[in-house]
Every structure is written in structure tokens, then in C-alpha cells.
Write a structure and sequence with these properties.
alpha/beta; five-stranded mixed sheet; EC 2.5.1.61; Porphobilinogen_deaminase_C; HemC
């Protein structure tokens, strides 16, 4: 691809956001194209500085301003943590999903103690109801403390007023701070947010040149998993701050006689009582197709995406049938 255009990549100003966007920039410039980061200040940054709980500021607080900047042509590309985006499709944009990093949660703690070995009554910092509910389910003796701020700010409280904090492993991995983690928590113990570890790289739906610049970044395996996990959340009609989690696994199979590659996608979804008193987890699996190129341009992609969404929806419906709405009502 050749283009004389310099693509502006909209990003928040935090270390994590600029690092993620910087990786996207490098992938674009490696194709011989020009791209620069463009900082966009979001209301979520101000609320974070004020330590306002996410549940009070609403869904999409970190993404709406970036999307508005993209829609108004202030930038050409926007980079989001996919887990922060509302689940409803936005026809203004097209998205690609680069290769996902490990979606698990990590614990940063005094003396590197894992979650199950923290002292009774230990203070653990996290502002996410999803994390609070699951931690209390396995360690009801712990004191959960609301926590916001960037990675460095949150980690700095360990050994000060907190005994531990819970963070997304993906963030630490991307800013090269993973050696601070005491453990990566088993997702069957603390289920991650749907699409955690995945990025959503968005362009305007009518900007074919920008889409061509980012299309090669897409990894259809990561994209399909994100679609399936977000379908769980969408089916439950729950926001990104609700006590709902999802994760998925993929088992690739050798190409058959037809040359088609398939994989078994298994999706897990959970809904949790905020006080840790009740937990619902359901899962489902299906064999889905993957083309040889594993990109959005592959002929099999639309069917892969559709099957991934159906599978996530199936898990969400199973949770609803077994009482997840009751847990959600308690949270609301």
C-alpha cells in the first residue's frame, strides 16, 4: 500500500494508552506509511484523578470522547481497550483487533503473596464490582478498597495503605512492568472482563484508506474471542462496570481434506453477587471456521464472526435462564 497521508492516531495521554497506540503506529509505519499520535483528553481522565468510582461515571467514559474525535475528523484512527467499549455496534466505525495479550488478572502484593495466601483482613484495592464480587466469593475475610488511577499510582499504594491491588495483566505486560506481579490469577478463580487484553483499533466506516492502513493488524482468532465474550455481556444487557465476566479458549485443529482450518471455541461467562454470596458460571463450545489468512479480508471471516457471536449469546442466555438477572438487579 502507498499513501502520502499522515494518519493521526487518537489516544488518551496515559502511559498505557500511548504505549498501546504506539504499537499500532509502529505496525502502520512498518508498511511504509506515515502515522502520528494525537492526544485526546477524556472526562474519564479527570474522574480518575478525582478517584470517582467508574460505576458513577457511566459506560464508555474512556471511549466516547475518542470516538467523537474520530467522527469529527480530529483524528483518523482511535485505539481503545476493547473491554471499555459499549457492546452496541456503532455504524460510524469499523474495527480491527490486533493479536490479544493474556487476559488474566494479576495481583500486586506485599512480599509477593498470592491472593489465597494474603493475611486475614488484608486490604485489597480494586474499583471493579466484577473483581470485588469474585474476590469476596473466595476470600470473604478480605477488605476491598475502591481504587482508581493509572498503573503506577495504583501499584504505589501497595505497602502504603494497601496490602495488594488487582490489575489487568495486559496493562502491565504492555508497559513492561509484569515483573511486579505476585501472580497471574486463574480465570476460574477471578474471571476477567469480556475482551480484556484485546485492543479495538477503529476507523471511520467511510474511510477506506485508513481501513487499508490498519486491516493487516487484525488477528481473527483474537477478534473472534472478543466478539464471543462481548456477546455474553450484551445478552445480559450489562455495562462494563457490572459484576459480569467472560473469557474464552481456542483449540486449533489441523486443516482437513478441504484445506479449511477450524477451531473449537469455548466461551465461559459469569454473573456474581456483589457481596460474593452467589456465583453463576456457564459455558458452551462450538467448532468454528478460520481461513488461512486469518484476517478480516478472508472469505470465511463473516461466518466465523457470526458463529462466535451466537456462542457468546448462548452463554448469556444460559446465565439469564439460571437467574443472572436477579444478581444484576441486586447490583443496580
Amino acid at each position: 500500500m502507498t499513501s502520502k497521508r499522515t494518519f493521526l492516531i487518537g489516544t488518551r495521554g496515559s502511559l498505557l494508552a500511548t504505549t498501546q497506540s504506539g504499537h499500532v503506529r509502529e505496525a502502520i509505519t512498518s508498511q511504509g506509511l506515515q502515522a502520528e499520535l494525537h492526544l485526546v483528553h477524556t472526562p474519564g481522565d479527570a474522574s480518575q484523578a478525582a478517584q470517582t468510582p467508574v460505576a458513577q461515571i457511566g459506560i464508555g467514559v474512556f471511549t466516547e470522547t475518542l470516538r467523537n474525535a474520530l467522527d469529527s475528523h480530529e483524528c483518523d484512527i482511535a485505539v481503545h481497550s476493547f473491554k471499555d467499549l459499549p457492546t452496541a455496534a456503532d455504524p460510524r466505525f469499523r474495527t480491527v483487533v490486533p493479536t490479544r495479550v493474556d487476559p488474566r488478572e494479576v495481583l500486586i502484593s506485599v512480599d509477593n503473596k498470592p491472593l489465597m495466601e494474603l493475611a486475614p483482613g488484608a486490604k485489597v484495592g480494586t474499583g471493579a464490582p466484577r473483581r470485588v464480587s469474585q474476590i469476596l466469593a473466595v476470600r470473604p475475610d478480605l477488605e476491598l478498597v475502591p481504587l482508581r488511577g493509572n498503573i503506577t499510582t495504583r501499584m504505589s499504594r501497595v505497602g502504603q495503605d494497601l496490602d495488594a491491588v488487582v490489575l489487568a495483566r495486559a496493562g502491565l505486560e504492555r508497559v513492561d512492568m509484569l515483573d511486579n506481579a505476585a501472580e497471574s490469577i486463574d480465570p476460574q478463580l477471578v474471571m476477567p472482563a469480556p475482551a480484556q487484553g484485546a485492543l479495538s483499533v477503529e476507523v471511520r466506516a467511510d474511510d477506506e484508506e485508513a481501513f487499508a492502513a490498519v486491516a493487516a493488524l487484525d488477528d481473527s482468532l483474537s477478534h473472534a474471542q472478543a466478539i464471543a465474550e462481548r456477546a455474553v455481556l450484551s445478552t445480559l444487557e450489562a455495562g462494563c462496570s457490572a459484576p459480569v465476566g467472560a473469557y474464552s479458549t481456542l483449540e486449533m485443529h489441523p486443516a482437513g481434506a478441504s484445506g479449511e482450518t477450524t477451531a473449537t471455541l469455548r466461551v465461559y461467562g459469569g454473573a456474581f453477587a456483589l457481596d460474593g454470596s452467589d456465583t453463576l458460571v456457564r459455558d458452551a463450545s462450538a467448532e468454528i471456521p478460520f481461513g488461512s489468512t486469518r484476517t478480516l479480508l478472508d472469505a470465511t471471516w463473516s461466518e466465523t464472526a457470526a458463529q462466535a457471536k451466537r456462542l457468546g449469546t448462548q452463554v448469556g442466555e444460559a446465565l439469564l435462564a439460571d437467574g443472572a438477572e436477579r444478581l444484576m438487579a441486586i447490583h443496580r
